[in-house]
Amino acid sequence: MLTIITYAFGIMYTPGPVNLLGVHSGINGKVSEHIGFFIGIAGAMFILFVTLGFLGNTFINPKFIPYMSLLGCCYIVYIAWKVMTAKVSINSSSGEGKVLSIWDGLFMQLLNPKGLLATLPIATIQFPAENIQGSAIVIWSIGLSILAFGAPFSYSMIGLLIGKKLNKPIYFKVFNIFMSVLLVSVAINIGYEYVYLKLI
Predict the structure, then answer these.
(1) Measured in Å, how far apart are the chain's first and last C-alpha atoms?
(2) Which terminus of the chain is more solvent-facing, meaning fewer CB atoms within 10 Å of its CB: N or C?
(3) 2-12 and 135-162 helices cross at what angle (nearest 10)?
(4) DSSP label at residue 16
(5) By C-alpha distance, which of 38, 9, 49, 11 is closest to 157?
(6) C-alpha count within 13 angstroms, C-beta hemisphere, residue 44
(7) Considering only CA atoms, which of 180, 169, 149 is closest in space to residue 18?
């Protein structure tokens, strides 16, 4: 179960459009004004986790889990590579007057491919593999949604505390490398636990 949390943390807390908007709100001193936006993001992740969780539990045959896990491992390594090689730039001069609402967060995350890609391996592979079903899917979805709220909120707080120094992409590059290593370690863990041990 630690694998689920580690993967979710690794994928949710890497710099992406939502988290960079969090940084932007912090740099501009608008953390409290964007709480609704962060709640909207968490709401979208809850919807994705619950929907995919129940679909995964209904349609995923347990004997296919090792093969789906292998695909999931490959995908996680691919994401880690994309994160490590990503170029990050922050434009702190754009959108200073715009306060993002709960609906902005909800729709942005529902339409954000990273949101779907973050929830898919957890809901369709890791939930069934850990026998998380029924009301447990809802409980886990709530917990993971709280984690999703924390991602842009923490970036916003970092932006508020460090301010203009975050305009240097090197800080995000170091963070990307750290998150990439974390994601690869999750892929290895899933590969060993759900592929190697199940098939050998």
Answers:
(1) 22
(2) C
(3) 40
(4) -
(5) 38
(6) 27
(7) 149
Helix axes 2-12, 169-190, angle to 10 degrees: 150
Q: What is the pLDDT of residue 151?
A: 93
Q: What is the mean pLDDT of the chain?
A: 81
Q: Which pLDDT does position 163 carry in this prediction?
A: 65
pLDDT at 77: 85
Residue partners of 81: CB distance under 8 A and separation at least 6: 180
Give the orientation angle of helix 17-27 with respect to helix 102-111, to 10 degrees.
Answer: 150
70 contacts: CB under 8 Å, gap ≥ 6: 191, 195
Between CA 94 and CA 148 the distance in angstroms is: 24
Query: Strand (E) positions, 21-60?
Result: none
Residue type, 116: L
pTM for the model? 0.73
Question: 86: closest CA among 175, 196, 191?
Answer: 175
